[in-house]
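Supplementary Text 2. Reproducibility record for the structural model of the 380-residue chain.

All settings were left at their defaults, and a single model was retained for analysis rather than an ensemble. We include the record here because the model underlies the residue-level annotations in Supplementary Table 4.
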Amino acid sequence: MPVRERMLAATTDELASSLDRLGDPPVVGIDVERADSDRYWRRPALIQLGVDGAVVLADPIAPLDLAPLHAFVHDRTVVLHAMDNDIAPLASVGIHPAHIEDTAVAATILGLPTGLETLLDQLLDIRFDGNKQRMQRADWSRRPLTEAMLEYAAADVADLPRLWRVMHDDLVRTARRGWYEQERDAVRKQPPLEERRAWTRLRGLGRLDRRAQTRAHALWHARETLARDTDTAPNRIVNDRVLLDLAAAPVDDVGGLRRAGVRRQAARAFGPQLLRALRDGQDASPVRSRGRRFDDRDRALVDDLRARRSMIAQELSLDPGVLCPNRALEHAVATRPATVEALRAALDLRPWQWALLADAFSEALATADAGTSDTDRDHT
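Retained model, structure tokens:
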């Protein structure tokens, strides 16, 4: 349905009055617009609350008390789309919903596209007006917000409760409500993104030798500390590509940092700390190997597990990664599981995922073990 009422709240009184106008709905939708691309910590620049066409736009940049908003949502069912993007920013301003549903998680379990625009179009026949990409790139910290920005923000949340009702019915109809609940709870229990960063996820790290990896390790930790302490996005200090280049070919002065690709402002502000990290990494003991190399048996088992997973996912109209991420498969095989129980523990899947994959994965492990035994006999 179109947005029938839009209320902008920039004072505590306006917020309280706007919330009163929403009545006492059991389910509300929430979305957050952020303006923190240059920051380490995620914070909201606008908080949208939607109830079937009525929308409150709360301005957290304005001098208002958001306690009424927290009180309003705390004991209601709150519908988010991709909660991982919104929970930490909401928590940063004291808003902690107790009961959350997530339409993006529901979409993955139903085998649907996860984009909000697509879901609203397919399930509710609602189409967005305006340029979504332009709005996502907009500066949401600017005041006053333009009419186009206000319209976009309201449309993003107005129909979330209705979308959730449709998706909930589909989850029940397909007997996937239990799968969804496990997945939703797992997403909610994740630490914030800021606590999940890891130096081992640097793309291209594997091409470095162990000494260079040690420098990358020291440089990454220095960047992370600087980013946290100064609330600066890590890539604004030194981006991943330049970090790896510096680890592979270290420099010893600020000019070298600039020539390697570090921005002038970052080199001036953070140069001494980055250079110290490179020296510390040079002097430190080499980092431990990230794991043994796969042999032919490992590669064959990964391929077999992937093929079996893909077949089951296709039958269920699910993305294979929803059933079991590739990273989990490769990690599990690297542990050389000797039993089905060890394989399950290494995969660390949710119960619903393992229930669907257990027989196929057990057979794959048995086949790999049989092949290994045959090879061992051939060599005796």
